[in-house]
Amino acid sequence: MEQSIDARNARFWNELCGSIFAQKIGIKDHSIESLRRFDEAYLNFYPYLLKEVVLDDFAGKKILEIGLGYGTLGQKIIEAGAHYTGLDIAEGPVKMVHHRLALQHLPGAAVRGNILGSPFQDSTFDVVVSIGCFHHTGSTEKCIQETFRILKPGGMAYIMLYNQFSFRQWSRWPVTTLLSLLSTLGGIVRNSEVDERQRRSYDSNSTGQSAPETTFHSIHELRGMFSRFTSVRFSKQNCDDIRLFPRVAIPRKYLLSSIGRKMGLDIYIQAVK
Q1: CA neighbours within 13 Å on the CB side: how many for 156?
Q2: Cα dihedral 220, 224, 226, 232 sign
Q3: CATH code at position 166
Q4: Rounded to 5, what percent of the chain is helix, strand, coil?
Q5: Contact 162, 192 (CB under 8 A)
Q6: Distance of CA 119 to the CA centre of its chain
Q7: The domain containing residue 94 runs over which residues?
Q8: Is 63 helix (H, G, I), strand (E, B) or coil?
Q9: Most CB atoms within 10 A, among 74, 135, 227, 271?
Q10: pTM check: above 0.90
């Protein structure tokens, strides 16, 4: 089963995460000018990202990023002075990181591989960063265990996972979300089946295909998964526009500091080993 998910993920994520966003803002190539335009637009769309992943202390540290996408965050990590390694299951994102490094004469490396079968030794990295990757692997818990293993004592993990109890979940799938909440309150972790429409609402490629595997998590559940870490901090971010009428909506940017922080799409985790 794990091998099947890996193969499908390798095919699906070979198209860079962020490709549809790039098309929407008119980017048609990977020139240095286009990458700068993409990065600026991306960080404007996710204005909280560099507050959740704190780069100030990265200089001189060994950093592993898992799930590389368009390479925006990876480049920021490198520019912060880190000794950077990128890891991705698909060839496309690894090539993009290498392209960025060569184009701008930056240090660092990226390799193709799977965190579930991590090629790294125990206590290798000072920091592990993974934004929106683990919930696609088929085993978020094993990803977290591997993160703990490869971190040095006192090392830091910055992880983002999808929120099981976001406003989107309540508004679009209220019954399954309610059942999940009741199970959580009863002390049961309920892994409800996620159909293709639900997966597509979070991640799809340029042909409209949904991500092969997606899971959603509650903070209650994640506390258990991160129990071996010495300290863990959770925060919620991100949201959709809210449509009031067919032609009237409250734009997302006005909701990030309210609904986004209370019932956000994403859970950001900062954990110290």
Answers
A1: 16
A2: positive
A3: 3.40.50.150
A4: 40, 20, 35
A5: no
A6: 20
A7: 2-272
A8: strand
A9: 74
A10: yes
Q: What angle do CA 6, 135, 215 make, to 5 degrees?
A: 105
What DSSP designation does 134 have?
G
150-to-59, 90, 103 alpha-carbon distances in Å? 19, 21, 30
Task: Locate 117 and state its tokens.
Answer: 């079968």
Rounded Cα–Cα distance for residues 252 and 37 (Å): 21
∠ Cα 6 177 181 (to 5°)? 105
Q: Kindly state the tokens that stand for 85.
A: 């390694």
Tokens of 177: 């979300």
At residue 16's C-alpha, the angle toward residues 169 and 66, to 5°, is 75
Return the closest-CA partner of residue 96 out of 18, 161, 20: 18
Residue type, 251: P
- pLDDT tens, residue by residue, 24-75: 999 999 999 999 999 999 999 999 999 999 999 999 999 999 999 999 999 9
Q: Total structural domains in the chain?
A: 1
152's enclosing H/E stretch is: strand 151-162
**Which ranges of 89-226 does DSSP label H, i.e. alpha helix?**
91-104, 140-150, 167-172, 174-185, 196-202, 219-225
pLDDT at 186: 75
